[in-house]
């Protein structure tokens, strides 16, 4: 019996007319998400990062060489506002993990690029993050993981449509903006 089972039992006594099956599912997803976010936050902190900075650096890393994107492209891929993106970039520029470079294709624009220090840090952080994620799902066997992944994908498609989240987020777990997707 988990914490959600106890809550559902209380509702069954107080309001037996309610179908609490959705409450059970959503309650469990929320609790699991909170446990996972805490564990991932600990991993990020080992590298002096938080979920937001990890997500931005990881987005640049997975973009491939030259590991540079425009602020607009970054914001779109991370599903955050331009104001939030500017703040995140400014913080990472101050720490020397990213830099602004003039765009070679747009004389007025610039690109956000991983510095060598940023590249080395995010490469180590991603390795640790993936290990943390593996530990977090270790209680499920491969078939259970596949079934859960398929079910959650169906739920996500119901909200966003097929392929709507392509390119977003890197598993940071938390977002600064409504709608930010840092789940993959």
Structural Rg: 19 Å
Principal-axes geometry comes out as elongated
Shape-level CATH architecture of the domain at 47-160: Orthogonal Bundle
Please mark out the parts with pLDDT under 50 across 5 or more consecutive residues, or reply none. Answer: 166-184
Separation, N- and C-terminal Cα atoms: 29 Å
Beta strand count: 3
Note the quaternary state here.
single chain
Main beta sheet strand tally, sense and closure: 3 strands, antiparallel
By CATH reckoning, the class of the domain at 47-160 would read: Mainly Alpha
Give me the CATH fold name of the domain at 47-160.
Answer: Arc Repressor Mutant, subunit A
Strand order of the largest sheet: 1-3-2
H/I helix tally: 7
- Report mean pLDDT, rounded to a whole number: 89
| Element-level helix/strand string | HHHEHHEEHH
InterPro entries: HTH_MarR-typ, Tscrpt_reg_MarR-type_CS, WH-like_DNA-bd_sf, WH_DNA-bd_sf
Keywords: DNA-binding, Transcription, Transcription regulation
Biased composition (Gly residues): 165-176
Domain HTH marR-type: 22-157
Give an overview in words.
It contains 7 helices and 3 strands; from the N terminus they run αααβααββαα. It is mainly alpha-helical and 184 residues long. The protein has a domain of 114 residues: Arc Repressor Mutant, subunit A, CATH 1.10.10.10. It is elongated, with a radius of gyration of 19 Å. The C terminus is likely disordered.
List keywords for this structure.
184 residues; mainly alpha; Arc Repressor Mutant, subunit A; 7 helices; elongated; disordered C terminus
């Amino acid at each position: 019996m988990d914490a959600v089972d106890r809550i559902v039992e209380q509702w069954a006594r107080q309001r037996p007319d309610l179908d609490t099956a959705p409450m059970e599912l959503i309650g469990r997803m929320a609790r699991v998400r909170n446990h996972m976010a805490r564990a991932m936050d600990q991993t990020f902190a080992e590298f002096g990062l938080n979920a937001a900075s990890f997500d931005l650096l990881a987005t640049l890393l997975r973009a491939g060489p030259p590991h540079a994107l425009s602020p607009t492209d970054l914001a779109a891929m991370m599903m955050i506002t331009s104001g939030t993106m500017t703040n995140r970039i400014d913080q990472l520029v101050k720490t020397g993990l990213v830099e602004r470079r003039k765009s070679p294709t747009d004389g007025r624009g610039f690109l956000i690029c991983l510095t060598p220090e940023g590249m080395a840090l995010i490469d180590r952080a991603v390795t640790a993050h993936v290990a943390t994620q593996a530990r977090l799902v270790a209680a499920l066997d491969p078939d259970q993981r596949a079934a859960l992944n398929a079910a959650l994908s169906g739920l996500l498609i119901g909200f966003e449509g097929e392929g709507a989240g392509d390119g977003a987020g890197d598993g940071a777990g938390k977002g600064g903006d409504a709608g930010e997707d840092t789940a993959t």
